[in-house]
Amino acid sequence: MPRNLITDADRARVRELHAEGKTRNDIARALNRSPSTVTGIAHSLGLSFDRSKTAAATHARQIDNRSRRTEIVGRLYGRAEHLLGRLEADRYIFTATTINGIESKTLDHVPAPDEKALASALSTHLSAAGRLEQVDADKGSEGAKSMLGGLAVALGIQTSFDDG
User: Which of 23, 27, 133, 159 is 20 to 30 A from 5, alpha carbon to alpha carbon?
Assistant: First the structure.
């Protein structure tokens, strides 16, 4: 398949649009080229793009995401507290399907299989909250990958970054 070679007209158009103050992505759309191609053309012409707006937008997104993580951590701790309350309650409502249909009984203890399931869910919520808190403590992409991978595992989602 023949490559879409860069022409002198492409170079001239990049120079022209750059002089007009267009962004790299705007120029890419105008030329029907990829942003990386426009970057390469601009670099070969000695041109560069002002990235201060991108940096500001990235910083704002990081602040927003930190706030969202804080909200999620609070919700995870809330779920963990709810589950712990169920484990420690004086009464436990046990629901089962019998030959008579669905029946509920109030017990003075949590049945072992239910206790195991509740404890596992509690552990999952606390682990996910801890990993989310660690992202902001680490300030690194590896921490984010690890946290997202762990959260995905907890939610049963297959990820593409499990192998690093």
Answer: 23
